[in-house]
Design brief:
alpha/beta; nine-stranded mixed beta sheet; elongated
Length: 187
């Protein structure tokens, strides 16, 4: 019995000391490259709260749509932060070209425009990166200026998650450029 335990202990020790390379998880950022065009006069101030989203996107997963339409989490590969946090940071950076002051919250008695957003899709579907974002802009009096949903599909140019992230960034860039145009057309 002692011989069996000793042999088992030796096998476990040899296994623990093997030269197997450690598993490396990769994390991705959202870094769209939208056009920066500063309008002649910037709007006064805006509150940009964190985007809302479906539960599966509130954590840090990348997701994909299977052939049967099911949404699945892509294992072991995650965004650096959740899509809501990444998009929130991106929106605050983007908003600097349109507003003089950007805030993430404000007291009820303060008067600011408010840009709410919702992530409707942020996923891989076959060889397509699909992004769908809803934006609701209200003026300082709470009146609706616009409620628009933008959808952008980008073909993923290659295999692997890095190519998916590149396509997602291109899709978000295109959406932010459209949002800029719509915002610039407001009176």
């Amino acid at each position: 019995m002692k011989a069996l335990i000793s042999t088992l202990f030796i096998v476990l020790m040899v296994g623990a000391c093997s030269n197997k390379a450690p598993s490396i998880k990769q994390y991705y950022r959202l870094s769209p490259d939208y056009a920066i065009a500063t309008p002649e006069s910037k709007r006064s101030s805006v509150v940009i709260p964190r985007p809302k989203t479906l539960g599966i996107l509130a954590g840090r997963p990348m997701v994909a749509t299977k052939q049967d339409g099911a949404l699945v989490q892509l294992n072991n590969h995650y965004w650096l932060e959740s899509p809501t946090v990444l998009l929130h940071t991106t929106l605050k950076d983007w908003a600097q070209q349109h507003w003089q002051q950007i805030q993430i919250s404000a007291a009820f008695d303060e008067r600011h425009e408010r840009l709410d957003s919702k992530i409707l899709a942020f996923e891989k579907n076959g060889n397509q990166a699909n992004v769908s974002l809803q934006f609701i802009l209200r003026n300082a009096n709470g009146e609706l200026l616009f409620d628009k949903t933008f959808q952008q599909n980008q073909t993923i140019q290659g295999d692997g998650y890095a190519h998916f992230v590149t396509a997602i960034n291109l899709a978000v860039s295109a959406i932010l450029n459209k949002l800029s145009q719509d915002l610039d057309n407001l009176q």
